[in-house]
Amino acid sequence: MMKSCGEHKEISIAKSIHAHVVQREVLHKDICLCNALISMYAKCGALLDAIAFFENLPCPNVVSWNSIMSIYYQHGLHHQALSCFKQMQSRGQSPNVVTYICILKCCSNIGFIKNGQEIHAIIIMQTLLCNNLALGNVLVHMYAKCGMLREAQDVFEELPERDVVTWSSLISGYGYHQMHDEALKCFWKMQHEDVLPDVVTFLCILKSCTSSLLRWEKKYMP
């Protein structure tokens, strides 16, 4: 019922269900039920209700923490998500891959590269990049967006596999920081490795092509 309310954004029914499970005194006996309630409020757009409920949880687990950090991220409250991450660690709750992905996205969006590098160091110690491409893609994107293209390239080359998202993240980073020749080289290498571009790749590379053409015209046209 909670999942259904969330999907259909039925906030009034959601609150009725919440009241019902509180009355039955079953809510805090099942952390999965608590997490479902947080997710329900989040999908209904009831940010304050989700946060208020989370803050009253006696023993949130990693899914609870991930849910509330994802809510902060989705609403552009990146500093709050980072604060929540620190609070999670101070309470002795170990992050997982989902946690790291969410926080690295926050670091990327607000340029907190030092925090991102610290998390990257933890990821290396836990050897998490060996079997999680999504985590590697977020790292490439973070470094590329923050202008650390050498670091982005290093992560890119260390990944055991690469998909269209990995390539597009690097191409986008080169283009964003006016390194259009590198973006074009990357695009040709991508095709050489038989990775098919998607819409995002084409948008990024077309921008680099346009910028390179304008630069060529400015240099050579009378």
Query: Residue ranges: pLDDT <50 for 5 or more in a row?
Result: none
Content-based structural category: mainly alpha
CA-CA gap between termini = 69 Å
In DSSP terms, counting alpha (H) and pi (I) runs of 4 or more, how many helices? 13
Shape: elongated
Question: Compute the gyration radius: what is it?
Answer: 21 Å
Strand residue percentage? under 5%
The string of secondary-structure elements, in order, is: HHHHHHHHHHHHH
Largest beta sheet, briefly?
none
Describe the structure.
- The protein has 222 residues and is mainly α.
- The chain has a domain at 163-222.
- It contains 13 helices and no strands.
- The chain has helices at residues 2-8, 11-24, 31-43, 47-55, 62-74, 78-90, 97-110, 113-125, 133-145, 149-158, 164-176, 180-192, 199-220.
- Helix 11 (164-176) packs parallel to helix 13 (199-220) and helix 12 packs across helix 13 (199-220).
- The longest helix is centred in the last third of the chain and has 22 residues, at 199-220.
- It is elongated, with a radius of gyration of 21 Å.
